[in-house]
């Protein structure tokens, strides 16, 4: 018994190509490159890191020395080490685009990427 026909695969392929086209169009027209990483500890801004320095370095906060951040020369930042049990923050990957964020909830630390341009029509945060 045949469930899918030849034309079904063509339709699925066209839908995938259209979806990829709109995803690429969105990423190149609306997403801005982040300039600063704001690091919050217990909902208070404790450090603002310039992402455009072009240097690789690792650092931690004096409030939580067990949480280590890594600033990449390509303008991205990530959690490198953490003493939290689930390590979700480390698996969040590199953050470089304005609106991206990652959190280490057991340590009450989160990073938010912001650009230097302020537009009142933009949402404060983008999830997804």
What does this structure look like?
Strand 4 and strand 5 form a beta hairpin. The protein has two domains: 30 residues; 79 residues, N-utilization substance G protein NusG, insert domain (mini-chromosome maintenance (MCM) complex, domain 2, Sandwich). The radius of gyration is 19 Å and the shape is elongated. The strands form two sheets. The chain has a four-stranded antiparallel β-sheet, with no helix packed on it. Strands 3-4-5 form a three-stranded antiparallel β-sheet, with no helix packed on it. The protein is built from one helix and seven strands, in the order αβββββββ. The chain has 128 residues and is an alpha+beta fold.
CATH class of the largest domain: Mainly Beta
What can be said about the biggest beta sheet? 4 strands, antiparallel
Please give the alpha-carbon distance between the first and last residues.
40 Å
Query: What is the CATH H-level superfamily of the largest domain?
Result: N-utilization substance G protein NusG, insert domain
> How many independent structural domains?
2
CATH topology of the largest domain: mini-chromosome maintenance (MCM) complex, domain 2
> What's the multimeric state?
single chain
How many extended strands? 7
The residue-averaged pLDDT reads: 87
Give the SSE string.
Answer: HEEEEEEE
The percent range for helix content is 10-25%
* Number of H- or I-type helical stretches: 1
Indicate the CATH architecture of the largest domain: Sandwich
Taken from the alpha-carbon principal axes, the silhouette is: elongated
Tell me the radius of gyration.
Answer: 19 Å
Q: Structural class of the helices, strands and pairings?
A: alpha+beta
Low-confidence runs: none
Strand arrangement across the biggest beta sheet: 2-1-7-6
């Amino acid at each position: 018994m045949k469930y899918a026909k030849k034309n079904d695969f063509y339709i699925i392929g066209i839908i995938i190509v259209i979806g990829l086209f709109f995803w690429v169009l969105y990423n190149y027209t609306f997403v801005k490159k982040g300039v600063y990483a704001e690091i919050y500890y217990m909902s208070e801004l404790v450090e603002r890191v310039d992402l455009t320095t072009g240097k690789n370095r690792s650092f931690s906060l004096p409030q939580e020395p067990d949480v280590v951040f890594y600033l990449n020369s390509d303008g991205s930042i990530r959690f490198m080490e953490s003493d939290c049990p689930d390590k979700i923050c480390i698996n969040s990957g590199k953050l470089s685009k304005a609106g991206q964020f990652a959190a280490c909830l057991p340590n009450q630390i989160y990073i938010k990427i912001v650009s230097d341009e302020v537009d009142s029509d933009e949402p404060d945060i983008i999830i997804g």
